[in-house]
Write a structure and sequence with these properties.
heterodimer, A: 122 residues, mainly beta, 7-stranded mixed β-sheet, 0% helix, 49% strand, globular, B: 110 residues, 3-stranded antiparallel β-sheet, 45% strand
Amino acid sequence: EVQLEESGGRLVQPGESLRLSCVASGFSFSNYAMSWVRQAPGEGLEWVSTISSTAATTYDAVSVRGRFTVSRDNSKNSLYLQMNSLRAEDTAIYFCAKTTASSGYSSRYDYWGQGTLVTVSS
Amino acid sequence: QSVLTQPPSASGTPGQRVTISCSGSRSNIAGNSVNWYQQVPGTAPKLLIYGNNQRPSGVPDRFSGSKSGTSASLAISGLQSDDEAVYYCASWDDSLNGPQFGGGTKLSVL
């Protein structure tokens, strides 16, 4: 059974940093690109970042470029999102999602975690 | 503001057929496949349709997808009360160099 479990979300102040983690199980993690997708309270889905299976390629949304960094450790079946210079508008549930391709060139996510809540507020 | 445009709401009565549209452009839908997701409030999204018109294992054939040019549609036939959810289209955007989601359509079963 495929499982994705996010962690690391909490209340932080504007300008602070936070690192989210996602541990995967039930599939060959190193074969698939992975993404972070977020959802602000009461809003729709917003893609954040994608990393290819080998970590050779990353893609970032304009809204987080230069502030967020996606990474992975295939030896630990883990995906990470380092978030710096956090803003109030980054407040959202952050989902970890598995693509069906290795390259990351995809909008097809066949498995999602339950999400972790990040709140940015003073 | 999403580059993929969906109506904010749709509704139907049990047994009816409803369609949800997703309008894009040459940089996304026209040249890339469309996927649809269903999200029940408080839960994670679920892949409903992939590759424009393919259903993952376990998704009833009441759900179908289509694409033409720069637009795509999701059709739900034999509407049921547990189809109440928010539906999102998604497609890769070559200009933005990333996947994009539509704004979501909240489906109500009256």
